[in-house]
Amino acid sequence: MSPEPPPPGSTGVDESPGVGRSAGAVGSTGVDRSGVARGGRTVLACLAWLLLWHLTPGLLANGIGTLVSEDASIATLVECGVALIVLAVLLATHRRRNTVLFARSRLMWLYALPAVLALVLPLHYGLPLPVGVYIFWMTVSVLWQNYLTFGLLQSYLRDDLPAWLTIVVVTTTFWLGHVVALPDQFGPGNPLASLPIVAMGAVFALLRARLGTLHLLLVLHLTFYFIFA
């Protein structure tokens, strides 16, 4: 019995994420062109992430804010402003992905937790920056880090990679971003310092893959910063 033909308009090829979309992807040289293209897009996405990652407010001791002022508060606010401008552009150009990342959910009620913690933060705050600057800085930084990494990067990688490999690549890239930007803290000489970063990257990537949205990630990240300030 001959196989049933595909329905009209169908290619008969599995078009799920991470699966080759063309039956003719292998050329005369035996090279899987679709696989090479997916690999190229993966590398490009990671490099773009690494470039933008260096705009994370407060990440670098000699960040762009220090070009404006030597005052730590002013430098931090300048870097937050730059991140917000870039973030606005990214949000405006990724509206389709944003409908998934920020979809309405019952998890949104959890934002009450970091909000309350921010209100009581002055009662136990002990860092040099003014508490108001710290709260603004952490809010911008957390939104920036999570949207850039577990939002956009993970979404782009998932277009071409299976779920498990996407989580591995996102976790590894997140860790490498810290190693490149802060080699004294997370370089090869301090392997134990890297463990929390790797663990956080893996857990957040898994949560993002499971839930689809960024709400819980933002809540957990903000809660950590507001408790341990």
From TrEMBL:
Region (Disordered): 1-33
UniProt entry tagged with the keyword Transport: no
Transmembrane listed as a keyword: yes
Keywords from the UniProt entry: Membrane, Transmembrane, Transmembrane helix
Pfam families hit by this protein: Rce1-like
InterPro entries with a match to the protein in the record: Rce1/LyrA-like_dom
Spans traversing the lipid bilayer: 72-94, 106-125, 131-149, 161-182, 202-228
Residues annotated as signal peptide: none
CAAX prenyl protease 2/Lysostaphin resistance protein A-like domain sequence ranges: 131-225
Top-rank lineage group of the source organism: Bacteria
UniProt-recorded name of the protein: CAAX prenyl protease 2/Lysostaphin resistance protein A-like domain-containing protein
